[in-house]
Amino acid sequence: MEEEQDSRFGFTITRPSGWVRVEEGQSAVRFVPPAYSERSISAPEFVLVQSSPSEGVLNDAAIRREVFSLLSVHGVSGFQQDPRTSPDVLWYKFEVTGATEGTEWASVGVVASGPQRYQIAVCAKPLERWRDGQKQCDEVIRSFQPGNLSE
């Protein structure tokens, strides 16, 4: 695993060693295995960090809407407030399944929502490798530290 400190969005996250960073528009960064570097959006295995402005801390319904609009979600197995919640930042952890170009994947993710910005971090692995991949994804999501959510 390697630590990634993002200068553009301010977050820190660990990612699998050797994975390639791909910028996605103005608001997201995706890390994928090198084999998917040219077609990162079709990767069934990825780490994704989305950073977006907000007017105040998002509520539960808004957080769910943002996650569902970001990912091609088929199922939700968990969506709950994370113990890292503080008076300034609302944290939510989630587990969802989805598919990319016919390959199903499972994922864990976290949302950190502050007064001016929120960030979503997701780690996904193909469903057939989830049993082994979940431990790595849990480590990735535990390592996530958002950038400044107050500006």
How would you characterize the overall build of this protein?
17% of the residues lie in helices and 44% in strands. The chain is an alpha+beta fold and 151 residues long. The chain has a 7-stranded antiparallel sheet. It has a two-stranded antiparallel ribbon with strand order 1-2. The longest helix has 14 residues, at 130-143. The mean pLDDT is 90.
Short description:
This protein has 2 helices and 9 strands, in the order βββββαββββα. The strands form 2 sheets. A 7-stranded antiparallel sheet has the order 3-4-5-9-8-7-6. Strands 1-2 form a two-stranded antiparallel ribbon.
- CATH topology type: Protein Transport Mog1p, Chain A
Computed Rg: 14 Å
Number of discrete domains: 1
What would CATH call the homologous superfamily?
Mog1/PsbP, alpha/beta/alpha sandwich
User: What is the helix content?
Assistant: 10-25%
- Summarize the helix and strand pattern as letters: EEEEEHEEEEH
Q: Order of strands across the widest beta sheet? A: 3-4-5-9-8-7-6
How does CATH name the architecture?
3-Layer(aba) Sandwich
The computed structural class is alpha+beta
Mean pLDDT comes to 90
Strand tally:
9
Number of helices: 2
Keywords for this entry:
151 residues, Protein Transport Mog1p, Chain A, 17% helix, alpha+beta, 7-stranded antiparallel sheet, 2 helices
